[in-house]
Amino acid sequence: MLPQLSLQAVQPSLVRVQASERSGDADIPAGGEASSSSDRLAAIIEGRSVPTETHAALRRERPVLEVDGFKLWYGAKQALFDVTMNIPAGKVTALIGPSGCGKTTLLRSVNRLNDLLDTVRIQGDMRLNGDSIYAPGVDVIELRKRMGMVFQKPNPFPMSIYENVVYPLRIDGERSRGVLDEVCERSLRGAALWDEVKDRLHESGLSISGGQQQRLCIARAIAADPEVLLMDEPCSALDPIATGKIEDLVHELKGAYTVLIVTHNMQQAARASDFTGFMYLGRLVEYGPTAAIFERPHLNATEDYITGRFG
Amino acid sequence: MTTLVESPGVVRSPSLVPRPRRRARSGLTARGEPMLWLTAGALVLCVAMIVSLVALVVFHGARAFWPGDVVQLQTRGGPVFAGEVSRIEQFRKAEASGPPAPQTPAGGAGQNAAAEADWPTRRLLRTGNFDMTGTHYTWIDDADVVEESRPPWALVVERQAWGRFYGEPVALEIDGKAMTGTPEETWSRFGEHHPRARQRWRERRRLETHDMGRVNHLLEKARLALRTAEIRFGRDSAAWMQAQTAQAETEEWASAEFDRLTARITGLQIENDRYRLHVKTADGSSKRIHLADIVRAYPANQLTRWDRLAVYGSRWWEFFSDEPREANSEGGVFPAIFGTVLMTVLMSLAVVPFGVLAALYLREYARAGLIVSAVRIAINNLAGVPSIVFGVFGLGFFCYGIGSLIDAGPLDPWTRGQWFAGLIVLVVLVLGAVGLSLLFPTRPSVIGGARPALGRMMVAMWVLAACTTVLMLANMPFFDGFYRAKLPNPTFGKGALIWASLTLALLTLPVVIVATEEALAAVPNSLREGSYACGGSKWQTIHRIVLPRAMPGVMTGAILAMARGAGEVAPLMLVGAVKLAPELPIDGSPPFGINRSFMHLAFHIFDLGFQSQNSEAAKPMVYATTLLLILIVAALNLSAVWARARLRRRFVTAQF
Questions:
Q1: Is the separation of the CB atoms in A81 and A282 below 8 Å?
Q2: Would you state the pLDDT for residue B414?
Q3: B55-93+117-166+295-321 has which fold?
Q4: What 3-state DSSP class applies to B80?
């Protein structure tokens, strides 16, 4: 079932090759004389196992979330191959990669939203602050309460702004008005929305603009003090101004929250994140500090992708 | 020249080879005109049919109670007829049964007839006076009419019995003494005494139904208590003795009460018998009518527009608020309105939660597969089952099955041993199923380890447990009914409001399930995922997010179900709707009257239109009742639509 480990692909390509020397598009399987960049991608395309190039800087960080040899199948089709990565505490980690590379699948595996699909099977494990996520007998609902998630499209619930924000507490049975009010204000301030909606907390959550709705969803996600905040392309449905606001917000959330963000937009990853992982066809190819990934990536494949040569 | 041998598919620069462009011709069909006509025509036809039907009902329904003039027609050969013209039609001479009319009649109306010798007209006159003539209506050939007049003092008298009376007032008789005078004087005397007589009549009616009914009810209660004691403790037991004494006391009290009431009723009756209106018909015979028997009387030919409006309004009011008279062809339909609304409300209360729960399971819990598809198809087929079949099912299952179980307990109960054995089986099944579900994950999970075989076993156990429960309830040895004392009179084992409501609930169940399923499917998955991501459980997600969002769709289903239920007739005929049930199906004491037969507007329409002896008189009532039913259904729908609109307003998006 598992692809064979191939030795020549294991060697990290430490030698950087000039861009002019590389033979262009990685989607086309390269011939024998192909450069090392195409080599690695070709290996992935052929289904061989390629180890993740994880930068040394990550070892110094305290991980909140540890992904350990995680594999995932949609029915017979494998979507994630042996993903191993540590998400550092209090930092923003971005996942980049071309469409269909498994970024969102990985993100949704963290809070086990993939459980909702009947055909999904997994191997490997993840740990949230040391607690296994996929061990048998884990209370999935309890687990999800320890995380917050923001989706691609704003999805405020059909209720008032106030009720939207305190929803995680409501379902825990919190009734104290004082606690709810306090959480509502803190979360909305945290999501930089308080000043805009404080006079209409009891209007429908759907009555505000798209960008505001997404910040409302962020407020909802941070209402229960999550240990990790998962963001699945939170700006893909927004205009540039709203996007800018969300990015600023992500920047502000850093430190107080651990953020794992999936994005298509490499500028966004470069601007907003501390660490970046590059994924390709279900594998984590390179993972390191954002500055290093964008300025001096260890792998040519990564450079090819972030400079827009493929993807 | 190489360009010529190249295939035409190769793109060439247009400047090099100017090729003739093929002109694309758009035909008539392509431009869409005929399809536009076809589709628009279909819509117009639909709308026209609906509008004309509604217009017909509204037109006839609205004029049903309008008081017309009374015409008096002197026919050739002597007889004089007076009454309201209800219809005018032309007929073929050859088909007319009477002898051919001579071509030179004396009257003015006759010349008219001569002009239309081949297609003469005739009028249907509502002549009333059924007790004297034996007919309510008379066709009068215009050719036979010698003289037509509108006598100023022709009265229309609506009576408690025998239908309408048309005639002129002669005198008001008190204690047999005629207070003769001009018709005007008689009319004013009538106006003075009539309200008081009616007041006494109503008082008497109240005593007869309400007060006497209360005494009868207490008497029946005492009798039932005695019978219950007899069944439970046997004759000559202490409890039976006690009940017998109590019953004897009640009987004594009741007979005294009856005497008192009868005395009052007789007093009112004697007082009312003193007042009579002496009237004479158009052909000269006279008649004395008790004032108390006159519901309404008016001199039709003297009415101003406002007087007519007053009569019209009072008739509508009577229609809304009163009980039917004269085999439903006169009076009101209040019991039918009440029965319709109550039955529809009970039906909605039964069908909406039931259907929503079923749809929730189908859409939110069940995993898509063969069984779910089969269930869905079955539900859709259920919507196509003829409604009379539901009626038969309701009669067999609810009335004779559950109803008789409630009345008298199981016919052939299990022995105690059998029953307790069943109980043990049930407990084992339930504990086993619950235990299995706690021990093993039966649903497939991302980490594997599911045991589908165990899951199927659990389902089988639940099904068996449900069957056992039903069997045990149906064969319970300790239960011999709540109403055994009343036997052989059935209490619930007959057509009843509650059984009709439940039967219609079954009938409308597919509507609610399908509408709810569609509404649930329209709830975006992102909302569910958002709720799960917040740590919501499945049920919390459903009841806080999914159901509120799907509520407008659920309401749509409820509206459709209500409209269908309110207009259904066939099954109701079997499970509780009756021709006449002036006693409303509601009560202060258990079982709150829900076991009574009831009147229903749609059934009332059928009854008026097809079962009435006086079909001409019933015709306006059919229209009026139809109009009323349409209005009630529209009102129920509008209220639901309003509620839905209110709900929808909460979900309006204002993006950017």
A1: yes
A2: 87
A3: SH3 type barrels. (2.30.30)
A4: strand
Contact between B585 and B598 (Cβ < 8 Å): yes
B564 within 8 A of B511, measured Cβ to Cβ: yes
Q: What is the pLDDT of residues B254-296, one digit of tens each?
A: 999 999 999 999 999 998 888 988 888 888 888 889 988 899 9
Enumerate residues 244 to 273 of chain A having a beta carbon within 8 A of any beta carbon in chain B.
Answer: none
Structure tokens at B111: 């010349």
Q: Which CATH number fits domain B334-409+490-650: 2.30.42.10, 1.10.540.10, 2.102.10.10, 1.10.3720.10?
A: 1.10.3720.10
Q: Which residues of B touch A220 (CB under 8 A)?
A: 530, 534
How does pLDDT run across B218-256, given as a tens digit for each residue?
A: 888 888 888 888 888 888 888 888 888 888 999 999 999
Q: B450 phi and psi, to 5 degrees?
A: -80, 150
Please state the domain extents for chain B. 55-93+117-166+295-321, 177-273, 334-409+490-650, 411-479
Which residue, chain included where needed, has tokens 């996520």? A133
Q: Which residues from A are below 8 Å from B656, CB to CB?
A: 209-210, 239
Q: Is pLDDT at A25 greater than 70 in this prediction?
A: no
Confidence of residue B383 (pLDDT cuts 50, 70, 90): confident
B450-B453-B457 Cα angle (round to 5): 120
Instruction: Quote the CA–CA distance of B258 and B242 in Å, as a whole number.
Output: 24
Overall pTM > 0.90? no
Q: Check residue A37 and give its pLDDT.
A: 58
Closest CA relative to residue B568, chosen from B608, B612, B605, B621: B605
Question: In chain B, which residues have their Cβ closer than 8 Å to the Cβ of A217?
Answer: 530
